[in-house]
Amino acid sequence: MTTGVAGEPDVIAFTKPRSPAAEAYRTLRTNLQFASLERPLRRLLLTSAGPDEGKSASVANLAVTMAQAEAKVIVVDCDLRRPAQHEIFHLRNTAGLTNLFLASGDRRDAELPLQPTAVPNLWVLTSGPLPHNPAELLGSPRMDAILERLADRADVVILDAPPVVPVTDAAVLAPKVDGVLLVVGAGTVKRDVARKAKVQLEAVNARVLGLVVTNVPFDAAAFGQYYESDESAQG
Hints:
Distance between the termini: 23 Å
CATH superfamily: P-loop containing nucleotide triphosphate hydrolases
Low-confidence stretches: 225-235
CATH topology: Rossmann fold
Number of helices: 10
Number of strands: 7
Shape: globular
Radius of gyration: 17 Å
Strand order of the largest sheet: 3-4-2-5-1-6-7
Helix content: 25-40%
Order of helices and strands: HHEHEHHEEHHEHEHEH
Largest sheet: 7 strands, mixed
Number of domains: 1
Mean pLDDT: 89
CATH class: Alpha Beta
Strand content: 15-25%
């Protein structure tokens, strides 16, 4: 287990809920609610073009704000290369998603190793032990069955997927979900790389809902009076 209080997410939507960054995630939550009026967003995937753009923190922040709005939310760490959700939420990672693939035979009734968090209505399915063939597992029919089971347990299932440009994992997962958000780190990723990520997702008929831009400085002079702090809106 990572250091920290078990189940307490180390993200701004939880630690500083009245900050401008937390409000930005609530705005994102509202935008997604409007996007789901005609087509429900029960399964949502977040990915990025490359590493270190804030996608895992964005997943956790969005999940926290959705749970605070009384939705039942499950976060699934599908980054089977560099998992981070167990560190963000200070949870054990001895059992998780990969254990469901390793269940003997064709067992669909294997217990879901969901871990509760300090946020009511929010659970996390960590990655579990890292496999040597993540893309094959995530693209398999068994992953479809796992997602079906998770959707039966929650209003929203949010997947934290690896960056889409360097590996294929997010591309094989994208057709299995109702919508994809592409996380872009301001000043971190080049525009042509971000464009390539979007093209790769569209090539697999992913429903790309939009971009989540992280690391954007907060304009305290214009909006500071509405918040308790003037921290940057970092994802």
